[in-house]
Every structure is written in C-alpha cells, then in structure tokens.
C-alpha cells in the first residue's frame, strides 16, 4: 500500500539503487547502488534543529555535505538559501499554499565535490491547511552546467504526472516528447522506501528511457554516514564516470547523436494534464 511520506523532521539518508533502461534503437540498461539525502528544509532553518543536529548541518565542510548554493539560483544562506529560491519559484507558478514541510531528495557533496543529475523537492501544505503533498519540483542538471525545473502541480502518490521535455540532458536523446513522473512510498522492514520514476516518451514510438531511483530512508547519523562513505566511496565522481561510460557505449553502438541546442525558452516547465 502506498502510504506517502511520513518521516520525523530530521535529516535522513536513503540507500538504494538507480535503474536506467533504454528501449531503442538499441537496448541498453544498467543498475547500480547509490544513496541520497532526504532533508526537511523548513525544519533545518529553525534554531531548534540547528541545536539538535549540530553534528551535521547544511553549509558546513564535511566528508559528506549539503550546500544551498548547489541548488536553484545559488542563493547564499544569508539570502534564505535554496528554500527561499524554491518558495519564489512556487509563487511564480501560482502555487501559494505549499507552506508545510519541504523535503529535498538530492545527492550530497562528497569530499567537496557535487554533481546532481536530478533533485526532487516534495512540497507539502501546512497542517492547518490539511497537510498533504501540494507540488513536486524536479530540478535537473546536465553535464554542460545548465539547470531546468519541472514543476509538478497537485501530484498524488502512486499516480503519473506528465510534463513536456524541453531541456537537453543526453546527446543521445532529442529534446522532444514528454516525461512521465511517478512517486511512491511504501513501509517495509521498519523503513520508508521511496521510489521516483521518470520515463521519457519520445514521439509516436513511445517509451524511450525508463529511470527509477529507489532508497530505504534511515536517520542520518554517524552509523549511516559511515556506511555511505565506506560502502559507496567517491559516489559523486562515480555518477559522472557512469554517465560518460554509458555515453561512450551508446556512441560505439552508433546510436544517433544530437548536439545541444541553444537555450531560448524559460527555465521552468509546468506539468500538463495526463
């Protein structure tokens, strides 16, 4: 049963897998283990949270860390950080009732280095407004240093949300078609297990790429930090290496190559009715 996200408001870490499958013109798929952070962004701005989690807080140099400037428009903590950028983004999209907790699922910096192919912002209504998921923002980065956000309005756990693809990510995929997003949470073995699925449908031929990121969410503490660092050393560098090694494999298989187009449109895309 899909229960939805129901975590205590403290930093978590998710251990799981990334699965990626291409359907054409050649089949190619891979699965590898990874981990990600799940951070309650509003809670972490409070003084009480800073006292409670002083051993691990954002914007501090650590072997494994999170920095606000890696997201959004790069706002510094003194300017409200990434959360202030997110609130402004939601307001610009007419979403004015996401005042509850904001959970950010993202890859951390490891040894000071970060690359975040995609981060998901789960934005909730306030408890006074009934709580519940109000919006999800998929923040996508490519290897050219560009960023785009897909704003998913009124999503539901376990249901598909669609958005047109307008951002160049891979040279082996044209900028056409649409994405189908689906997010789910299940309780198993004492942990919440989250799944984020992103499928790229390109034109009349249908599904081109299937991607799924999964993880069992555990409190972020010394034990889980040690497991992350020892079990997945240099993870962010490994992510970049895998992206380029898979690209080389597709090139050798003579999959059509598409040059990156010039960016001319807005940097935000809104979800469309399915």
Description:
The chain is 18% helix and 36% strand. The protein is α+β, with helices and mostly antiparallel strands. It has one domain. The strands form two sheets. Strands 9-10-11-12-1-2-4-6-7-8-13 form an eleven-stranded mixed sheet. Strand 11 (191-201) and strand 12 form a beta hairpin. The chain is globular. The protein starts with 11 loop residues before the first strand and ends with a strand. The mean pLDDT is 90.
Tell me the Rg in angstroms: 18 Å
User: Counting H and I runs of at least 4 residues, what is the number of helices?
Assistant: 5
Q: Into which percentage range does the β-strand content fall? A: 35-45%
Q: Reading side by side through the largest sheet, how are the strands ordered? A: 9-10-11-12-1-2-4-6-7-8-13
Weakly predicted, low-confidence segments: none
Helix/strand-derived category reads alpha+beta
Number of domains as seen in the coordinates: 1
Largest sheet: 11 strands, mixed
> Whole-number average pLDDT?
90
Classify the helix fraction into a percent range. 10-25%
Distance between the amino and carboxyl termini: 23 Å
Q: What is the 3D shape? A: globular
What order do the helices and strands follow?
EEHHEHEEEEEEEEEHHE
